[in-house]
């Protein structure tokens, strides 16, 4: 836990929802309100199940943040210098995280609650969620929906090909809270 007094420390309860996917894929996570956006990026990657192999950005109050790259011209403000509580004011505030600009996975993040810290809790911690993260490089929300249709039809001409491409144990309904928290 941080060295600041517990009376000044705030915990944000965030609900992270992958947009354009039905039924929804979401996670509920508790984070220290003064973490940097670069650390929140790592947390989102872990709790959602991504592998952090693509670029990402934030849109918070109409301002874009991310990790500037020398080879790309960008108007992104550096996420490594920005604390969450300086750009996200509190409860009911929504902001957005985009991962993989090719597949364009858009996440809506809602600050559901601002809480005091709990003495015996290590932050960040994932407290709930539903469904597995889509596989990396599957083509975005529309292609993922198509992939699920193929997986539900063993007679589909692409079924075997898609099964070979996927990880062996991929289950779109799986959510393993214990495994996620072991990685945080």
TrEMBL record:
<dbReference type="InterPro" id="IPR012912">
    <property type="entry name" value="Plasmid_pRiA4b_Orf3-like"/>
</dbReference>
<protein>
    <submittedName>
        <fullName>Plasmid pRiA4b ORF-3 family protein</fullName>
    </submittedName>
</protein>
<dbReference type="InterPro" id="IPR024047">
    <property type="entry name" value="MM3350-like_sf"/>
</dbReference>
<feature type="domain" description="Plasmid pRiA4b Orf3-like">
    <location>
        <begin position="10"/>
        <end position="178"/>
    </location>
</feature>
<dbReference type="Pfam" id="PF07929">
    <property type="entry name" value="PRiA4_ORF3"/>
</dbReference>
């Amino acid at each position: 836990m941080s060295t600041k007094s517990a009376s000044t420390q705030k915990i944000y309860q965030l609900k992270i929802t992958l947009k354009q996917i039905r039924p929804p894929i979401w996670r509920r996570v508790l984070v220290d309100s003064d973490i940097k956006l670069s650390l929140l990026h790592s947390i989102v990657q872990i709790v959602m199940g991504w592998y952090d192999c693509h670029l990402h950005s934030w849109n918070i109050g109409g301002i874009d943040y991310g990790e500037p790259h020398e080879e790309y011209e960008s108007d992104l403000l550096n996420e490594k210098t920005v604390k969450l509580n300086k750009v996200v004011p509190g409860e009911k505030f929504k902001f957005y995280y985009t991962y993989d600009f090719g597949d364009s996975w858009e996440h809506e993040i809602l600050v559901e609650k601002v809480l005091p810290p709990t003495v015996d809790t290590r932050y960040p911690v994932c407290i709930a969620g539903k469904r597995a993260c889509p596989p990396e490089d599957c083509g975005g929300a529309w292609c993922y929906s198509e992939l699920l249709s193929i997986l539900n039809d063993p007679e589909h001409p692409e079924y075997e090909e898609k099964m070979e491409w996927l990880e062996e144990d991929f289950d779109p309904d799986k959510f393993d809270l214990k495994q996620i928290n072991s990685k945080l």
